[in-house]
Prior knowledge:
With 852 residues, the protein is an alpha+beta fold. The chain has 30 helices and 28 strands. Strands 10, 11, 12, 13, 16, 17, 18, 19, 20, 21 and 22 form an eleven-stranded mixed beta sheet that branches. An eight-stranded mixed beta sheet has the order 8-28-27-26-9-23-25-24, sandwiched between helices.
Amino acid sequence: MTNHHTGLSEKEAAKRLAEYGENQLSGKKKTNPAALFFSQFKDLMILILAVATVISVLMGEGTEAITIIVIVLLNAVMGFIQEYRTEKTMEALKEMSAPTAHVLRNGEARRIPAKEVVPGDVVELSSGDRVPADGQVLECTAFSTDEALLTGESLPVSKQMGDRVLMGSTVSSGHCVAAVNGTGMNTEMGKIAGMLDDAEEERTPLQQRLAQLGKFVAAACVIICLSVGFIGFLQGEDFLNMLLTGVSLAVAAIPEGMPAIVTIVLALSVGRILKKGAIIRKLHAVETLGCAGVICTDKTGTVTENRMTVKRIYCGGKTYEVTGDGYRRQGSFYLDGKPVRPAAGDEAGRLLRCAVLCSTAEIRPAGETSYEASGNPTETALLVAAAKGGFLREALSKTYIKTDETPFDSRRKLMDVTVRAPGGRLFLVKGAPDILLQYCTSMSVGMGQRPLTPRDREDILLSLRDMGKNALRVIALAESSAPEKGLAGLTFLGLAGMIDPPRAEVEPAVRLCRKAGIKPVMITGDYSDTAAAIARQVGICRRGDGVLTGKEIDAMSDGQLAAACMKTAVYARVTPAHKLRIVKAYKAAGQIVAMTGDGANDAPAVKEADIGVAMNSGTDVTKEASSVVILDDNFATIVSAVEEGRIIYQNIRRFIRYLLTGNLGEVLSMLTSMLLGLPVALAPIQILMMNLLTDGLPAIALGMEPPAGDMMSHKPRPKNEGLFANGLMKNILFRGLFLGLATSGAYYAVWQMSGDLILSRSAGFLTLVLSQMVYIFECRGQGLHFKGNPYLLAAAGASVFLALASVYLPLAQPVFQTTAVTGVYLIPVCIGIFIGPLLAAVARRLLRLLRG
Length: 852
């Protein structure tokens, strides 16, 4: 047994630490660098390249095999570096927020790392502390905790002796001594973390589409091998030799650089998103963000500022409006639309005096524009409002000395203090309006007071209802000059209505969502009236949109919820189990869902969502379950990340179009030369040169392309949309055909003119590379565009330089099996370069005319 006055001895604490382990969640092991590195080789395209490497070795193409191995390793290293760096960033964030605990050891108060807390420890908790482990309250004074991160309860929970305190919650007010009875995975938070251990991760849409592309390339390779073997057999060639030739063609069809380019482009986008305030934990999640059709967001802290703000005050029969949001110092009082300054003795001044003196919260200036606060958020809001009216604790505490205090009690729903004032003693009370009003017999008016009449009570209740309709949380305040009478005969001072105001950036972000065809949804544990009011202010809830409560969700089957979800904008009074059902409902409705969360209780829903989004202020459990962490907890940042995801997908389609068109041109040119009974048009080393160097740099630059038009002006693409949708495959086949014909034409013409194989191949090589450099600017959009992407200009220039160097530089000619193309032999090359785009444009226009 632990002595509650002395705590554990150091010897006993060390013994229990060895027995129970560190007070940490083991939901996810630390990053294993080796496992992370080898996980990069799971992609089908990588496996195809591995097969290509083996085939190259068997065919005696050692240079090609070595080069492919280098590319595969480059891809793995790039992916590893990005994901490892992200995991290390997450671990650093976790260490920065690692809490400490105040414990009794050997009868002395000590501060130790929270991970060293053991069952039986006696911990002391004060306002602002994070509860380090599950425990039971031994003694407390005005003690309440914020359990929002664990239970979803938005308001502080008052605690009494014998009540439980939960790991991960924070102390809102008061002081407590508690005995620890659960640490690490044996806590409520640990149970939630344990639920996530065995959850299988779904592949992202991009991973699914790249897997489909890998299958397509694999199928194309098989078809090419068999086709070439069959053609050669019909021409009387040895079938085995022709099959080996077909294999070399198939290797030419593989875009060796694509996996590495995808990884590089995604990694670059991660850096851009980080600048906007989000950490991408899983590389392929970048693109998934662009698919989102529904964003389910918390209210508190994400849509709102998570800072209660007094917006309206009713006193002396008058209603004052208070400007300014959050803890900003700027703000004024308005009466009938005109600015006023509360005076020390009038009804507004007396109410603000009571708000300051009857409080345990603290506010301090934080720069010239705002305050930093500690304590209960409701009391903090009242203090900030009082400061706007010129009533500060520093000044009042010199005149009014607190002599007694009865803390807020969840059953009594009131708090009172007694102060010694210049004219005698004052008894100040604040709390629930319906309770406090019962004890009032008079009300403050102007510089004095008068009896409270039935009509006055009606007016007060009318004002109370009006504030409620506007989702304001209302606190009543009263005073008495006879503390000895207690609550009897109080003078009603007024009502203060407050709300957690929406962030200024959210409304334009919601408008952008609507424009982009994304459905924003608010999910909260708050009351439906409050949630709907905030949702209407920011545009999440519009006319005709539904509001569902947790009870209503319980009464629905999964099918009914899936049918109702697309008509619902707000979910109120929900539990973590409801959040999980809501995510599944949207997925059942065919939507790609982004779900935000901060509390440990949100982790299962965050894990279930297509894109799990954790808040940086949230628990480590939720961050581990997420794909994305929002550093500033801002809804607008989520929308910015979605836009970036759309840009990424557009650019991936651009460079896939470019790479596959080039590979098709290579295959067709070689196939054409074979059909003509000539040696293949390109040497293996030339194919490799194009696939890796002259293709690779421009493809990466295409991945950095700015968006074509407004990316948020169209709906999210369908969940089952393929990578080649919207005519991409037709475009690849169409332009690949012209590239192949242009290359074959140049090769054949020079062969007929010279009979020199190396010269002919050099002409074909130049034609194909330079034609692709023209074509890459077509891949940016409709027609040729040369402005707006300096990286592409530089990459295309570098590729042209490399191609020319490999043909005209004497040192490079033996390596790339080339020779200088000069004089009359340049004519077919020039014709091939420029006739391809021209013929393609003419053919495209003819097709449009025939269709229309």
